[in-house]
Write a structure and sequence with these properties.
The protein is α/β, with parallel strands linked by helices. The chain is built from seven helices and 15 strands. The chain has a five-stranded mixed beta barrel with strand order 7-13-10-8-14. The chain has a two-stranded antiparallel sheet with strand order 5-6. A two-stranded antiparallel ribbon has the order 11-12. A hairpin with a 4-residue loop joins strand 14 and strand 15.
Amino acid sequence: MTKIQASELIINNDGSVFHLHIKPGELADKVILVGDPARADLIATKFDTIEVSHSSREFHSITGTYKNTRFTALSTGIGCDNIDIVMNELDALVNIDFKTREIKKDKTSLTVLRIGTCGGIQPYINLGDLVFSHISIGCDGLMNWYADRDAISELDIEKAFVKHVGWSEKLPAPYFVKADEDLIKLFEDCTVKGMTISASGFYGPQGRVLRMPLAMPNMVRDFESFEYDGRKITNFEMEGSAIAGIARHLGHKAGTMCTVVANRYAGKSEPDYHAFIDNMIQTALDKMCNL
């Protein structure tokens, strides 16, 4: 079997993976991803026991147990570029032998849930609602760097979306990825059914205008009016598509659940959203114990 070169999978001198600084065996099979390192600490305050914690740049991880279930809380920072690092290194930790540098014959499937904040773009979505992204729309372009990106994209919806919004050829081709069905069912009784834009930035890529005009000035309006088979685009966030896309390629279960802290349709926001976050964390932990 071909060994993975040291330049391709960098392993630190202590045996941990390069960016995350997690060692094989320290990662739980159930992983909750957050953007903010402080939010990983907030999740860990609900753990009954804590095994290990690591911090490197924006990547802060804590592995522990909650109601006899082992979890790893891990911060990713902002953006799908960071998700490329996180998801590939999580997979490497369980599916590559760090001693031989060979891919393991028997694969481990992780369950990965991103929880975060988002902006709603439909009138029926309220501040504080939990939106579970049944479909994530990758406007970041990340999956286009990998072979067989069409195999993970819902191509009929993709084609209809590109036509409806007049997608610019100068932008990365969007891709549409379904969340894991088991996770969809697990959260369907407490969340809004979402079709979510994963944007490559917070301002222009989400239609915000400060001092620079937009390449697609009517983008938010066109996103809001898009409909396919009874589904409408519900919200913006910045990481879910890459999580769903890489997980689908590598055989992991993944989904994204976000709490709404702004509604672009209504022009409202809630900057003091700590109660929303606490409710989301509690919901995620309690639900995932049932998997």
